[in-house]
Amino acid sequence: MTAPDVLVEIARNRAARVKRSGAHQGVHLPAGRDLPVTPLLSRGPGDPILIAEVKRRSPSRGSIAEIPDPAALAGSYREAGFRRVSVLTEEERFGGSLSDLLAVKEAHPELALLRKDFLLTLEDVDISWRAGADAILLIATLLDPETLEAMYRRAVELGLSALVEVHDAADVDAVRSLRPPLIGINSRDLRRFVIEPLVPLETRTSIDWSCAVIYESGVSSEKDALFVRGTGFDGLLVGEAVARSPGLARRIVAAWDGPGDEAVRRYGAWSRLYASYRPGAPFVKVCGITNREDAEAAVAAGADLLGFVFAPSPRQVTAEVVRECVDLDVLRAAVVVLGAGEPLPDEISSLVRKGALDFIQFHGDESPEMVASWPGYKALRPASVDEVARIDGAGSPAVLIDAFAADARGGTGRRIDEEVLTAAAARRRPWIAGGLNPENVSAVVRTWRPGLVDVSSGVERERGKKDHARVRAFVHNAKEAFNEQ
Fold first, then answer.
1. How confident is the model at residue 244 (pLDDT cuts 50, 70, 90)?
2. Which of 108, 319, 455, 468 has the most C-beta neighbours closer than 10 Å?
3. CA atoms within 13 A on the CB side of 263
């Protein structure tokens, strides 16, 4: 497996430092270990695997926080309700040290400590044990299968837990023979060093053995913690956000410990969607459904999501059309266009509560707080490359990029400007709408690798009525584009 350049550089530099000063990084360590190992794995449903991190720097963000006393910071995490702490010990890029790990373990032997570093050898495992780690991070992308297995087996011999980190299906394939009981899925794409919030849901579908799955990176708020819990993960690892603002740690624990049905209400639809994820293939949404016959045709063709437009449009429907389709085995989204501060209409909120709608597609001027309070996602229409930055503050795990038109909020049949789409794809794997049809969707999928493609007018025989043959062709071409390369 080829490691990303960032990881290769970090590992190469670390290997050179180890060669100069030893795997102990110049830190005096005890010859053995007096303190018992504290298990990292969950001890039951009431003990989620929540991990807060002592982290000084980041390759992408530079200095994060002054941490004069890592043991005191770990203590604040403990007071907030965390029972597990990750200590970053990589020196050059992250400013860490084995001294931090020693200090935290000496002050808080009751905490389960994860040594987070770019570990490469069996000696790294032994050093971690001597320095007080209760668990180590093993990054599948960095290690060849034989080395990873040897390090994993050595950790087990020493009584340490191994958090085996993966990012994609290829990483899962590489560790499958070990069937590790603890997997971390990193939402950060180290090839571009950007966060992809939905990647852990994609990658989780490739895990075919029983294990605890931890969501890593990208958690920066209570909302993010709710998303992780509501989508069925066994825990999370949060670093930069709590290192910058230790008070956030308590709020994240409180969000996780809150009513579970609230987290599922907001975010459970994402788990239902990704239950049918197939690596390499985008989801397909057929929008502008106005009747039962078209809905049935879209489902039969393999659509993953149906869109019902509740905003003023030639394709506008009432709640009755949604209710007529509620028995179909497909997810359903309401497309709404709300003004700033405008509430979701009662008839739509009622359909959500009753399970007739799974998502809300917010296509207006809704705030990130409004988007986050419902099971849904934001649609944006960037008029220029500069406006693409709005993706970062959209408030939803996915962002649908639609073509800009001054006189309409969607359904125009116009294509997205390619420069805008390229800029959007550099920030996050986009969901794409606007001007798609059976003839062009394969090229769009191969070029931009979207998470979802959305079609409406491109498969119509007349406005508001679908051409069923074109629906079948669109779904086939979208989902098979990678197989045809």
1. confident
2. 455
3. 21
What one-letter code names the amino acid at 453?
V
Please give the CATH number for the structural domain made up of 280-484. 3.20.20.70
Report the alpha-carbon distance of residue 275 to residue 3 in Å, rounded: 28
Distance (Å, rounded) from C-alpha 59 to C-alpha 14? 14
| Region of residue 231 (phi > 0: left; psi between -120 and 50: alpha; otherwise: beta) | alpha
Structure tokens at 423: 């800029």
5-270 and 280-484, same CATH topology: yes
Q: Give the predicted TM-score (pTM) of the model.
A: 0.92
Q: Is 304 a catalytic residue?
A: no
Start-end of H helices in 402-460: 418-427, 441-448
- Among 287, 325, 358, 454, which one carries the catalytic annotation? 287
Dist. CA 282–CA 117, nearest whole Å:
33
Domain range annotation of the chain: 5-270, 280-484
Is 173 marked active-site? no
Q: Which of 168, 189, 402, 454 is catalytic?
A: 402
Token representation of residue 284: 């397909």
Question: Residue 395 corresponds to which tokens in the numbers above?
Answer: 């408030």
Q: Among 3.40.190.10, 3.40.47.10, 3.30.1330.60, 3.20.20.70, what is the CATH number of 5-270?
A: 3.20.20.70
Contact 141, 190 (CB under 8 A): yes
Which pLDDT tens digit goes with each residue over 408-426? Answer: 555 556 788 899 999 988 8
